[in-house]
Amino acid sequence: MTTETVRSQATHETLWDLSVPGRSGIRLPESDVPEQALPDASLLRDELPLPELSELAVVRHFTQLSQKNFSVDTNFYPLGSCTMKYNPKINDVIASTPGFSAIHPLQPEETVQGALELMYNLQGILQEITGMPASTLAPLAGAHGELSGVLMIRAYHERNGDSKRKIMLIPDSAHGTNPSSASMAGFDVITVPSDEQGNMDLEALAAVADDKLAGLMITLPSTLGLFDPGIAEICDIVHKAGGLVYGDGANMNAIMGRVKLNELGFDVVHLNLHKTTSTPHGGGGPGAGPICVGEKLVQYMPSPVVERQGATGQEIYKLVTPPDTIGALSAGHGNFGVLVRSYAYLRALGADGIRQASGDAVLNANYLMQRLKHVYYLPYDRTCMHEVVFSGKWQRAEGVKALDVSKRLIDYGVHPPTMYFPLIVEEALMIEPTETESKETMDSFVDVMIAIADESTKSPEVLVAAPHNTPVGRLDEARASRQPDVRYRA
Amino acid sequence: MTDVFPHSYFPHTDSQRSEMLAVIGVNDVDDLFADIPQQFRNPDLDLPPALTELELGRELSGLSKKNAAPGDYACFLGAGVYRHFIPSVVSAMISRGEFLTSYTPYQPEVSQGTLQATYEFQSLICELTGMEAANAGMYDGASAMAEAALMACRVTDRGSVLVLDTVNPRYRAVLNTYLLPQGINITTVAANDVAVDDSIACVLAQYPNFYGGIEALGTLADAAHANGALLAVSANPVALGMFKAPGDYGADIVTGETQPVGVSMSFGGPFVGYFTAKTEYIRQMPGRIVGRTVDHEDRIGYVLTLQTREQHIRRERATSNICTSEALIATGTAVCLAALGPGGLKQMASLSYQKAHYAAGAINALPGYEVSGDGPWFHEFVVTCPQSPRDITKKLLEQGIIGGLDISDSVPNGMLFCATEMNTKTEIDSLVDALGKIAKVA
Amino acid sequence: MSEHPSDLQYTKEHEWVRVEGDGTATIGITHFAQDQLGDVVYLVLPKVGSSIAKDSKMGEVESVKSISDLFVPLSGEVLEINKDAIDHPERINEDPHGTGWMIKVKLSDEAEVQQLLSAEDYDKTLAS
Predict the structure, then answer these.
(1) Scanning every residue of chain A, which has its alpha carbon at the shortest distance from the alpha carbon of B337?
(2) Count of C-beta atoms within a 10 Å radius of residue C66
(3) 3.30.70.100, 3.40.640.10, 3.20.20.70, 3.40.50.300: which CATH number matches A91-347?
(4) Sign of the alpha-carbon dihedral angle for B285, B290, B291, B295
(5) Predicted model pTM
(6) How many Cα atoms are found within 13 Å in the side-chain-facing hemisphere of A483?
């Protein structure tokens, strides 16, 4: 493994560097209608300062840019809580069929029955997986689903005359979107601690479960990758205090087909289709965050919900607004292009495939846990679910941070795991292999992690200066924040 | 050992699974789920049997054929989502696995592709809108407008907003969803009735508005600024290929639905909402922002910046809860704008304007139909029809035409028609012909 | 050898205070605080002329990876803010007790000074 720094010629030209005035972009046909009078010149813009490139220049530019990315298609990407599984190509092909990609959301419903049927069927599958009786595909990402879930809990309490319920409980291991969503819905947040096994501290929970409690937001398995065996009791404590339970389904890949969240006591759950159901991450979206809800909250769901009406053999599908809806979350019906991919994936797996996926995901994470637990400190030495959280604290003692381990992994062609999250583990490294990775890939990864641990004692300076083999080295983030340069200026 | 479901997505062989189980020290994968209380473990899943890729293609093709696709049908429907020409380079670029299957660029050294493409998106959007700073994109135009209102409230420390009644009703619905839970008051007003006092954080307008008309942004900016409020505009990016930029009128925040530039209509999503503001407000902006910087050897590179605004750091005090947004769609928009260039975008705007005005003139000349509204407009227009829009829609469909939106809830017998460069003169003449025949038969 | 000068006084919120003797005080954040924050990128300070009350929030210190509230150690009127530190937030890291000073206050209640910690006592709170 070379420790020499090798950087390829960094192509950092922007579109403006490549632009030449007068160059022609893509043209459209001339107008075929008689010339129409223009509005007053004062309303029209004088110049349109966009860059001018030939078509080849555009293709070469963006192709070269893409080649600077790591991706699931090119690299092992064990980002904890992101579920970077293989994104099947057939799903992309299906989603780009004109019958799906060219239709307008406001077309008369009788002209889009295929789309509505797909959405209705997807609702059904997600309901079956979670065990919940109802769902909507409207939210456009996990955080969007969280927002609608907490808004529904708020609406429920207000309907019951319980408007003094202002508190949302959130575990100390929670993802930042949880308190943020609660805050956007007008709630105050109280944090509930985890115990030394990584489970929720039930006594601490009971102490804050009073008549000001609106609900609890909990991730299962937790962001530590652990299934809290006390989950039914947790839901019970919250319900007895008059609150509702929101399930953050980001880690659903571990438990789909293994347990039904409805039976555990959840009142509303969101799913991340761009995690659990293989839709591509796209460098930061699009995603989809549908919510599945229990009986108490059905009437409050955001719109729209797809319903099937009519006699057998004469069914029609309709977009329906729930009677006490919290409202619309966007101008559309959900990220339909993502929903198509998700539906195709779930139909490809069926019940057996869904169970196989969660089984292999958990198998893989436990395999990595066992093989690395003497190399990196394992704060919770118990069976994990689909991800395992290590701590870089042994390496820290040598002056090497989790950040340095992560950056060095890049030199070995592996995308770093999730770092410094959850907040309750120092020097956290959260590793989620997913079920689509082979034993060979994982064994290579173990070898690399062992090599890096070794380097941390013998040549820590190599890690601290990593990565060495990327187009750019570690970037000056302080400068980027002190002197924000967020758009090109000549 | 538990039954195995063989599939190309799952690489393990039986012997590999056995090896791994031995390393872990359990007999069966099921043993790894022991933390799930027995009574809840391994429920039945009642789902249709799995489909191979061949069957999957067939099954979903059947569903897609039950939809009437613009292209097979002539389309005159707009209302916030538009059928425009999408150059083939867009899908060629964004279907590349390196863009498509990468994650949010938190590790900049291995994400320079996504980061630079996003920086270029931000830059292009700033040039279009005449604004100083842009973020990496929001979910869509409606939620972007809602977040603009929330930001205006933070910046001005005020608790009320005014929204023009010509803003898309679906956008106004989303405003309610986002603003009311935070105790923010929303008042809907007519453009000539904008009264700004010091409780008003911003005036929200759409450009062109929902009915196609060009709002007098300069007047609105003056009204807002006179009493310390902000002007927040939601602008169609194709219209900005022709009409003066909102930033040039003094808008403080400009957002919009980017879908018209390079994004398939896709039954309403995924799209991307762009979000821009004045530099002085940048720390109050929601969403990711890509910044340009250097590494320790002065090489130019790109990073996510000002991250302390965001939920993963600021948590309950974040400017927004947004995490995953629409990065790939934004990259596609950047490709589209780069490919069209100023010439192509100007053409797109001009053709849309010309064809819509031609259509409006011809429809207005039909007995029984009246095109309403005076004042300048872009590519959408309201028609008051001689029959219910519901009936007209049905009859147009029979002719292979998707007509304008039924807006009879706000305009009696009203339909909102749109034309773009995608509508040929032949199509428009057929529409006019069909409408004429419908009126005669009544 | 302490990083925290003995001629300054301190608070539990990691601010230092230099009581000037003419009824004013100079305030900043400690070496420990800037070390925890990392590279400081932005400051939000109270307006000159404004009144600030002990223990209330008076501003923010932003670094690349975090943001911390600034709390008022002593009540009074803000006389001056350090414009150089606003334009060059790296001063906070380079010289937190010197050129990284943040505000100068005209004290309204000198009795509050009794509640400040000595350098030794502040270092003790860090050790625990």
Answers:
(1) A50
(2) 14
(3) 3.40.640.10
(4) positive
(5) 0.96
(6) 8
* Residue B64 exposed, middle or buried by CB count within 10 Å (0-12, 13-18, 19+): buried
Which domains, from first to last, does chain B contain? 74-83+341-441 (3.90.1150.10), 88-335 (3.40.640.10)
Under an 8 Å CB criterion, which residues of C touch A?
Answer: 38-39, 41-42, 62-64, 89-90
Mutate to test the interface with B, among C67, C68, C86 (most CBs of B within 10 A): C67
* φ/ψ of residue C68, rounded to 5: -120, 145
Contacts of A among chains (3+ CB pairs under 8 A): B, C
Radius of gyration of chain C (CA): 13
Residues 6+ apart with CB under 8 A from B151: B253, B277, B281, B284, B285, B286, B319
Residue B102 exposure: Cα atoms within 13 Å on the Cβ side:
33
Q: Say if residue B280 is exposed, middle or buried (CB neighbours under 10 Å; 0-12, 13-18, 19+).
A: exposed
Q: Locate A280 and state its tokens.
A: 């591509």
Of A25, A69, A472, the CB nearest to B343: A25
Name the nearest CA neighbour of B334 among B283, B258, B254, B386. B258
Q: Number of B:C CB contacts under 8 A?
A: 13
Tens digit of pLDDT at every position of chain A (490 positions): 555 566 665 567 999 999 999 999 999 999 999 999 999 999 999 999 999 999 999 999 999 999 999 999 999 999 999 999 999 999 999 999 999 999 999 999 999 999 999 999 999 999 999 999 999 999 999 999 999 999 999 999 999 999 899 999 999 999 999 999 999 999 999 999 999 999 999 999 999 999 999 999 999 999 999 999 999 999 999 999 999 999 999 999 999 999 999 999 999 999 999 999 999 999 999 999 999 999 999 999 999 999 999 999 899 999 999 999 999 999 999 999 999 999 999 999 999 999 999 999 999 999 999 999 999 999 999 999 999 999 999 999 999 999 999 999 999 999 999 999 888 899 999 999 999 999 999 999 999 999 999 999 999 999 999 999 999 999 999 999 999 999 999 8
Strands, DSSP E only, in A38-185? 134-136, 167-171
Identity of the residue numbered C47: K
User: How far from chain centre, in Å, is Cα B31?
Assistant: 46
Report which residue type is found at C30. T
